[in-house]
Design goal:
Rossmann fold, six-stranded parallel beta sheet, Arc Repressor Mutant, subunit A, alpha/beta, 2 domains
């Protein structure tokens, strides 16, 4: 298999240089094509370089790694984003996966384990250490809904955007939403675009799941068979 053309996004230059030196010992596995020190730079370089993979830190200036992950996964879904961070926060782990990250690795892992996980990425697998995978599984089985976080997110949405989000979660198509709210289909698409941007979601499926999880609609009304995987429908 060809090596993964990789962009490294981390605001610590010393760490980037050390990682690049390490990855150069496995040129069969990884080719570093660029470096970014901010979230915004990571997005711009991803657009220009179109790498196979982005190794993404979370805590960076000018747009953090999670925001950059959401942008990349939404606009270039073929590019694999692997979080490489010092943060063991379960909230960051869940958020990264929700936004589309292919893996979540800690900077404390050793070189052999890193290469093993990257070989999995090269073969189309996901990249999670056993500890992170167990935490993720635990979160899926026993999800923790943060009412405070959801209320803060919902405060970003206008009343009309909340109306659109509720109808999306009930399985309404764009024409159906337009008819129900007496607006045009283009206006519905504009509202959806704003909703996805404000909530840092990638597509209608995630928007519908968010609406159910936050209590905007009851779970029985959720319908995922109505074109929800398209970002805007």
């Amino acid at each position: 298999m060809p090596p993964l053309r990789t962009l490294i996004a981390d605001d610590h230059s010393l760490f980037r240089q050390g990682l690049i030196s390490l990855l150069r010992t496995r040129r069969d596995l990884v080719t570093v094509v660029g470096e970014a020190s901010t979230g915004r730079e990571a997005m711009l370089l991803t657009q220009r370089l179109q790498p196979d993979m982005v190794l993404m830190d979370i805590n960076m200036p000018d747009g953090d790694g999670l925001h950059a992950t959401a942008c990349i996964c939404q606009n270039w879904p073929q590019i694999r984003v692997v979080i490489l961070t010092a943060s063991e926060s379960e909230q960051n782990l869940y958020e990264a996966v929700r936004l589309g990250a292919t893996g979540y690795l800690l900077k404390s892992l050793d070189a052999d384990e890193l290469f093993d996980l990257l070989e999995g990425i090269q073969q189309g697998e996901v990249a999670f250490t056993r500890t992170m995978a167990l935490r993720l599984l635990k979160g899926l089985v026993h999800p923790k809904v943060s009412t405070v976080t959801h209320e803060a997110d919902e405060a970003l949405l206008s009343e009309r955007e909340l109306d659109v989000l509720r109808l999306v979660a009930q399985g309404f198509s764009n024409p159906q939403i337009a008819g129900a709210l007496h607006i045009t289909v283009n206006t519905v698409k504009a509202h959806l675009k704003n909703i996805l941007h404000k909530l840092r979601l990638a597509n209608r499926t995630q928007a519908a799941a968010y609406a159910v999880q936050s209590g905007l609609v009851p779970p029985p009304t959720l319908n995922l068979d109505n074109g929800l995987n398209h970002p805007l429908g």
